[in-house]
Amino acid sequence: MTVNDDSFTNWKNREEIAESMIPLIGKLHRERDVTVLLHSRSLVNKSVVSILKTHRFARQIGGEELSVTETLPFLQALTALDLGPSQIDLGMLAAEYKADDRGLSVEAFTAEAVAGATGANKIERGEGRDVVLYGFGRIGRLVARLLIEKSGSGNGLRLRAIVVRGGGEQDIVKRASLLRRDSIHGQFQGTITVDEATSTIFANGNAIKVIYANDPSEVDYTAYGIKNAILIDNTGKWRDREGLSQHLRPGIDKVVLTAPGKGDVPNIVHGVNHDTVKPDEQVLSCASCTTNAIVPPLKAMDDEFGVLRGHVETVHSFTNDQNLLDNYHKSERRGRSAPLNMVITETGAASAVAKALPDLKAKISGSSIRVPVPDVSIAILNLQLGRETTREEVLDYLRDVSLTSPLRRQIDFITAPDAVSSDFIGSRHASIVDAGALKVEGDNAILYLWYDNEFGYSCQVIRVVQHVSGVEYPTFPAPAV
Length: 481
Description:
Layout (H helix, E strand, L loop, with lengths): L2 H30 L1 E5 L2 E2 L5 H15 L5 H12 L6 E4 H10 L6 H8 L15 E6 L3 H12 L7 E8 L6 H10 L11 E4 L4 E4 L2 E7 L16 E5 L7 H4 L7 E6 L25 E3 L3 H17 L1 E11 L25 E3 L3 H8 L6 E9 L5 E9 L5 H14 L6 E4 L16 E4 L4 E3 L2 E8 L3 H15 L5 E2 L5
Parallel strand pairs: 1-3, 3-20, 4-5, 4-9, 5-8, 9-10, 10-11, 12-14, 16-17
Antiparallel strand pairs: 1-2, 6-7, 7-8, 12-15, 13-14, 15-19, 17-19, 18-19
Helix pairs in contact: 1-2, 1-3, 3-4, 3-5, 6-12, 9-10
């Protein structure tokens, strides 16, 4: 048998193992609200090839590929346990088991590692929490996709309604079509049908009412059977407490803004300050995509090296508030053609750092350039550190942060030498450290942070909503603090 034959046989064997994992992952998700992860990447509803590629990704971080033959025994052990709602990372289980020298069986080690999700410790499955989207633009549609994807057993977040202004004939058909097909993020994974008579979109079995209103005061959500809901405002029309509080109508309990909040509205970056949200807080903001991209790595760097000062330069994809062709715009430069120009503009991300990281004493300045790409941006974070270090030390530290720290859902790490912006379309992390581009000299470090300013940010929004709704389930094994 040739080397090629050996390689192909090995691939077919791994395909068969990955195929056997799919029903186990699906059953845990549907019946027990357990999301199976691999190095913070969900394996729910993934194909055989996707599962194998996710295992291979570990090679870029840990130096060697993680095999499905290593993770399958842990997955099988999980199916035998009395698990409650949780997120369980097979990659972390395999890594910790390899480092454990007690000689435990896979079954015994797994039971011990996820003990917080079993027996008397497990969370009881609730009825779920209603969610309403106010506005249905780029972020609104991606948040809708994520909510539908995560509906699982129906005991988590439930997208019940979308509020939009009337758009004329076949409005709901056109909006459903925009949800079904996306020029950047591809086809919706599932089926979508429309009932025009009842103004309802059915997406993977989820009935989503489309409510037409020109103002928050026009809607009584209880009339649609919606109660105790979280409303996600995707319009950005109101950013202060007074304006956003207009949404606190019958049926709505909390309001989450997908833009930087003003005044005393808390700006929340999940993974950094989400645990500061008070239980009785009814209005909060998820800050901006750029703030979410820079704050987690900034916190990580400050925790380990100290940060004395910094500057962030964002090279940002163009957005819908710019003009396709030169035309009048209230902001002079944004009036120039977005697909044809690099456009210098302002960013509030640097000033927003203080809200998310009040303990950070360093002064952070910032500026931005909009460029002719439709999605994925890069933040160049130039930091003066509190001590001298080396490039190798920073790389090892950030790699470890991306794998094992509480920020592993926010910070990703890539070593591919030829990575470009389109490679990060669909990334669920708030930012991705480009290892090859990192520069360190003495007490100066320059980080290059890619981020999908649409999808990655939408994932952060969902994490905040899960947290304030009480359906953010614990992760096992618990990340190192």
